[in-house]
Amino acid sequence: MNSYTENLQEAISTTLQVQYLNHKDLGSQAEAASFTLKYAREATLSTDEKLKSATAVMEFKRSVKEQAGRNKDRAANLLTLATQADQYVKQSVTNTAVSASNVQIAANAIIRLASDVGNIFSIIKAADFDSDIYKKAVEARELINDTAYAAEQASQMAMEASALIAEVSSSTVSGQTKLINAPSANLFNILSADFDTSAQIVARGTATLTAASEKEILAARNFEATNAYYKAAQHAYDMLNNELNLGLIVSNITATAFTIGFNIIKTVFDVTRSPVKNYYMVLVKASSKTIFSINSAEELFYKKDKSFVNIPVASGEKDRVNKQVEIKNIQDADGDVIKPGQQYVCFLFAVYADEHKKRLNNFDDFLSAPSQSFQIDIA
Amino acid sequence: MSILPQQKAVLDTLTQQVADAQNEVDECQAIVDLLREKAVNSQSLLAEAENNKTQALSNQNLTDRLVQNVLDLQNNSKIADDEMTAADDKTKELAKAIRVLMYKMIRSAEVINKLAIEIIKKKALNPLVSDELVSLVTAAGTDANNAVTLTLLALKTTFMATALNIESGSAVKLENSQATELNQALTGDIPGEKSAPSLKALIYKACDDAKAYYKKIEKAHELITRELAAAMSDLIAAQVKLKSLQAGLVAANAAALAS
Fold this sequence. Notes:
The structure holds 2 protein chains of 2 kinds.
Chain A: H1 3-127, H2 131-167, H3 170-244, E1 249-251, E2 257-263, E3 276-285, H4 294-302, E4 309-311, E5 320-326, E6 343-352, H5 354-360, E7 366-367, E8 374-375
Chain B: H1 5-125, H2 131-187, H3 199-258
């Protein structure tokens, strides 16, 4: 190969390498942007979820607050009722005591009268009055004795009533309603404040959701842009590769085979005929790709090294060739077997027809720039 | 000064590796930053959940005490109501007795007064009727009047007391029924009514929910903390790798140029 061609090939290799690095760098950026977008989306979703649950919590707290409010009102009402009942009962105690005392006084007067009547009857009986007066005296004595007995009973009853009404524990009840009213109001205040806080959380959550979705939109835009640059870099690489490196591509990589694709080499001045006798493919470890040159390739090739794999090209194929290559039975340029996980690049080696070589008076062959690096899948 | 192909290969590979390591560090850093933000977030959520739980527990305790007080009140109201009913019944009985006493007293007074008139008439006809009897009969007339007046007063005050006792009784009864209603509304034991959950049920539910929520957040926080720790160690490993590769590149460059 003359130095013009050599210089060209080196320029091609360098250009592809630079673009490859650029492409890889942008790929990382796109990945980072996709992470950011993923988290931003998660944040929006979780904020939305949080807002929904906060709203549910708020609604629940509203019902609690309402119940507590009703409870508070009931307790307050009860306090009023119990206080009134106690006042009534206290007045009743006084009134019943007055009544009992009056009944007692009346009973005493009646007994005194009964004793008067008893004395009168004794004298009438002793003085032997006429039967009419005697009869009346007997009746008066019987009646007043009966009345006196009734008065004694009433007095007894009045005492009991007075005792019973005094026993009514309305003041205890009234005191207890105070123990209920204050805590009920307290509980209501707590639950009401709790509801207010919850309502504020919902309001804040709405604002946060807006902010989160804005953040997500920004992240999505950033990802879109970064991804576009990445795609553009990929496209640029493909274009460079296509124009400068025969569009050399390794694809459909599996554990056992891959496909190599390239454009057929044509002479510049006669595009109908290919000057190439045979195409070969050689795998080189990616770490050695910058030192694998036409010289090392020719040296290996003419030693009939096993690393060179013939790619038969039918004469019918005019522009582009895609050939599947089996991995078993081939080895790399260092003579090692092909291992999964190892990064390789692929070179295309073309042996020009003798006629072509003679005409140019140049007996060198052709070596492409490396393909993008790739690795064999683990079976 | 030229760099040999083998040296160039080493330098290129190293440059490539440094770039890769830098990318890895950037990725790790991005993940760590995001996880750290999440961890801060979940920490504050956890604190909030803890506050909620404490508040809910305190509410539950307040409610428990309230429920106990209301139950006591309901029982005592029932007792007061029973006591009032007993007193009321007794006063009503008394009122009846006093009414009967009043009639009896009036009838007795009438008979006594008639007897007195007969005796005084007799005294006018027959001076032998003893003076003592006449004076006794006169005193009995006064005492009878007095007894009627006092019985009438007793009747009035007893009926007043009875009327008031009826009012007191209904006040106590109303208080008792309201206490029962409060207890039922508070604890939810309203027979045949299942519409709204009671305050006690709601507050217990709030407490259970707060406990469950706290557990959930606690778990999430633990998970994020673990993830963050793992991401940090990844980041440190990537940084160390980057540093050593950078140093390697510098050294290789120097060696290549020196040769």
